[in-house]
Amino acid sequence: MKKFWDRKEKPYVLIVFLLPFFWMLGSLLLGHYFPDPGKLLMRLSGIWACVLMAAALSVTPLMKFKHLKALTRYRRFIGLSAFFYAILHLVIYLVLFAGLSWRWIRSDLLEKPYIYAGVLALVVLFVLAITSTKKMMKRLGRNWKRLHRCVYLAALAILLHLWWQVKSDTSLAVIFSVIFALLLGYRLIVNRKYLTFKRGH
Ligand code: HEM
Fold first, then answer.
1. Rounded distance, CA 59 to CA 69, Å?
2. Distance of CA 89 from the midpoint of ligand 1 (Å)
3. Is 24 in the pocket of ligand 1 (CB under 6 A)?
4. In Å, what is the CA distance from 142 to each residue of 11, 57, 63, 72, 102?
5. Would you call the peptide bond into 35 cis, given omega within 30 degrees of 0 as the criterion?
6. What is the pLDDT of residue 78?
7. Which of 17, 120, 158, 177 could crosslink 81 through cysteines, CB 3.0-4.6 Å?
8. Averaged pLDDT, 57-69
């Protein structure tokens, strides 16, 4: 077990996290997503960003299990992967949806206000990504933890992004609402227990 979680496995972990990207790129090049590649790629990249965010938020609860403690070493990596897929989502929007036309984007923003919620989530993820290094951790000290709790703000913004754009099929919004609610609920219960324990001492 120890050997499996040795640092040497990092490049393989990177490949695993990039698999959805290569799969999307391959399918696009092979013409599987035509005639409207933008629509499907937007959905896939957005779903992968949500899945990896949920995975990053699951690391703390999973650490309760002794055998899964090694996962902490990958929390930053998983979080950065979520950011990577969110950026990919934005690039697909800018290139395949908007054709890099600012005028088109301006009129689209009027039609789809849910994009603002997506932008908010992406901005939060960006701040978390650039402050995720050991150096920033040291520099920010206690505030680092406080800042990184904003990941829950990003999760809420994503849920808003999903619910706001629902037309008839609510399945994706429901699935991620349940997942994020469970993870946030766990966090709130643990924090409350900790505070009660602290007051009692
Ligand atoms: C600059 C930031 C963002 C922009 C411009 C943006 C834009 C969009 C647009 C236009 C759609 C609808 C695509 C369609 O019509 O089929 C969409 C869907 C989606 N977005 Fe975003 N988004 C952003 C950020 C995010 C982030 C940060 C996440 C998750 C971490 C996310 C997750 C999703 C998902 C899962 C869908 C698919 C929803 C569905 O098909 O029901 N988005 N986004």
1. 9
2. 7
3. no
4. 31, 20, 22, 19, 41
5. yes
6. 95
7. 17
8. 88
- Show me where the domains of the chain are located: 7-199
User: What does the angle CA 70 – CA 57 – CA 159 come to, to the nearest 5 degrees?
Assistant: 160
Could you identify the residue written with the tokens 């403690």? 69
Mutate to test the pocket of ligand 1, among 36, 42, 166 (most ligand atoms within 8 A of CB): 42
List the one residue out of 67, 60, 34 whose CA is nearest residue 152: 60
Kindly indicate the confidence band of residue 69, based on its pLDDT and cuts at 50, 70 and 90.
confident
Ligand 1 pocket, residue 88 CB under 6 Å = no
What pLDDT was estimated at residue 99? 96
Distance of CA 44 to the CA centre of its chain: 13
CA 154 / ligand 1 centre spacing (Å): 13
| Structure token pair of residue 82 | 């979520």
- Which residue do the tokens 């706001």 mark? 164
